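C-alpha cells
===========
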Amino acid sequence: MPKWSASLAGALVAVVALCGATHPAEAAASRIKDLASIEGVRENQLVGYGIVVGLNGTGDSLNNAPFTKQSLQAMLERMGVNTRGANMRTANVAAVMVTANLHAFATQGTRIDVNISALGDSKSLQGGTLLVTPLMGADGEAYAIAQGPLTVGGFSAKGDAASITRGVPTSARIANGAMVEREVEFKLGTMSTVRLALRNPDFTTARRIAMAINDLIGVPSAEPIDPSTVRLTLPPKFNGNIVDLITDIEQLAVEPDLPAKVVIDEATGIVVMGQDVRVSTVAVAQGNLTVTVTEQPEVSQPDPLSQGTTVTVPRTQINVDDGAKKKMTIMRQTVSLRELVDGLNALGVGPRDMITILQAIKAAGALQAEIEVL
C-alpha cells in the first residue's frame, strides 16, 4: 500500500473507532444554542467598491485597468482637480472590492471588520490605505463606511532571476475598519412568537427540542412545525419578554439524532461514516492483479589482455501479485461501524478501494445508510 494510503487508512481507523466506541444511547448531548438559531437573528452581507492608495509601485496599470483610471479621475474631480485628457502613469493606486458582514443588532457607531481584494492587476496591497468606501446591502442602501490602513498577510519579492510569493499579497483586511451608519430594524424583544431554525434538519431532533422547552416552561409553548423549524410562543403568564425566554432555553441539553450517512471525497480518498451505519449480511472480496517490473542492469568487465570491451548486461525481474492471499469476508447482518471497518481492513483495503466497496455494498442493497459524494 502506498504511504499516502497507509496514512489515510490510519486516520480513517482512528475516526471510525472514535465514532464506533460511542453507543447511540451514550451520545453526547448538545445545547439548543448549538443546534438551532433564532430566525431573523443573522448577519447581512455588505459589499463596496473602493480605491487603495499609497502602494509602492505595485498598484494597477492604468492602461490595463480602465476602471481604476476612471475612478481616480472621478475622485480627483470631486476634490477640484481636473485630470481629463492627461496622461496618468501612476502605479500607486489599485481598485478593490470591499466586503463585510453586518452582525445582528449592530447599532450606529459600531465597528466591524472588512476584507479587501484587488480587482485589477495590482501586484501587492502592502502599505496601502483604503479611502472612504460605502458598503451596501442587497437592497442597495449603504449600511457602513470603510476606511483605513490595510493589513496584508502575504508578501511578494522579485529580482532579475528569481521571485518569491508567500500568501496572497492582493488580499488584505482592516480590523474594525468600517463604521455602521444604518441599523437593520428587528425588534426581537417585542415579539410574542419566534421560530428556531435547526442547523441540521431532522424530525426527531426538532421534536426533542420542543419537548425539552415544554418541560422547562411547564406549558406547551414549543411546537415542531417541520424538520428544520420549531415555533416558540411566549407563555401568557411568563414574566418577561421573548429574550428572557430564549436565554433560559439556550442552555438546555438535547441529544441530536442524525440519519445514517457515509460521506465520500473521491478527490482525496477520505471516507467518513456515522455511528448509525449498518450493513446487512453480505460477502465481500477484494483483490487486484499487480505486475512489478524492475530493471537492474549489470556492467560486464572483460578479462585482462582479452582486448574486449565493457558492456552493460540487462537484468529484468518481474513479480506478479494476483491477490491470491486476499480472501472473501462475510459481513454479518446489522454489524456495527467498527465491525464493518475491521472487516474491510482485514482484506487489506485502502481508502480508495473502500470507496468502491461501499458503493458496491450500497448497490447490492446491503448498506443501510445514505452515501454522499463530495
